Amino acid sequence: MNKKWLLTPFMLTLILMAGVAQAERIKDLATVAGVRSNQLVGYGLVVGLDGSGDQTSQTPFTIQSMLSMLAQFGVTLPPGTNPQLKNVAAVSLHTNLPAFAKPGQLLDVTISSLGNAKSLRGGSLLMAPLKGADGKIYAIAQGNLVVGGFGAGGSDGSRITINIPSVGRIPGGATVERAAPTPFGSEDSIVLNLHGPDFTTSKRVAEAINSAIGMGTAYPIDASSIKVNAPKSHSQRVMFLSIVENITLEPGEASARIIVNSRTGTVVIGRHVRVTSAAVAHGSLTVTIVEQAAVSQPTGPLSGGTTVVVPNSDIEISQETNRMFMFNPGVSLNEIVQAVNQVGAAPGDLIAILEALKEAGALRAELIVI
């Protein structure tokens, strides 16, 4: 049974009243299924470089591309000719085609060297197509590059490079030639996909929409998707989504997690992390050995002894104190941090303590190592 939707000022008032509480908007929690950007990629030539282009003897595809382009303009080189170019570089192009982008709109393009060009500074990209995953051309790129990096070298082979001079951008350098297909408006309903799957948030999103617009408007499909009945008219659907995405609600809180970066030693502990009753001993033995040379001399000139150097080793063993602490049942994040700071544990020590608590079954959280 199809519903007829009428957007009235009363409905807008309900939305504004719902947003008074401290909460998050639906547009910050979810996206509309089918409304997405599409990746575009291309290949081209950058010309006009100041001797910093590809070494054509090592990058034959640059010569092949140049000869192919010249042939399209009616320029044919004698057979066996091998141009030694220094001001041309073969490059890859990539950009994102936003949802609902229309022909004639401009896109920023990133240009990256494919060969051994030292720098793309001062170069210009010749007209190059940008294709989607389906092989169709969706945009055409051309223009002067903006390069943030810089490089300089001496005759003795020394060289200094600041940032990455082999990558540049062309702001507004691509023109959209074809709109990407989208399923928006082709069905009687829309689906909202949460950025992070959560059953509580999915339920609350559906409840907030039903409370603001009317019962039966939305219902959760699973932990990440909510189906919303929407008007079929394109103009009405745009207005309807404008209202829906500004509805506010209190999302469900994330599950207890501890994220550990094994490369940098960074540890992030969520607020719901709890520890059951456990005792932790953390410490180490420090052994210090000091070698001192002592001189032994005879007691008198007639004793017949000789002066010798006698090694004297001083060995000291110390153990750090205050390295054992107790976790009571249900300890909170703040108490965990205070206990660890009291013993002066470094990030590496904290990781070892958390892993040991997990193995002991005392850590009520998911330990994720990235």
TrEMBL record:
InterPro entries: Flag_FlgI. GO terms for molecular function: structural molecule activity. GO terms for biological process: bacterial-type flagellum-dependent cell motility. Pfam families: FlgI (PF02119). GO terms for cellular component: bacterial-type flagellum basal body, distal rod, P ring; outer membrane-bounded periplasmic space. It is found in: Bacterial flagellum basal body. Keywords: Cell projection, Cilium, Flagellum, Signal. HAMAP family: FlgI. Assembles around the rod to form the L-ring and probably protects the motor/basal body from shearing forces during rotation. PANTHER family: FLAGELLAR P-RING PERIPLASMIC PROTEIN FLGI, FLAGELLAR P-RING PROTEIN. This is Flagellar P-ring protein FlgI. It comes from hydrothermal vent metagenome.
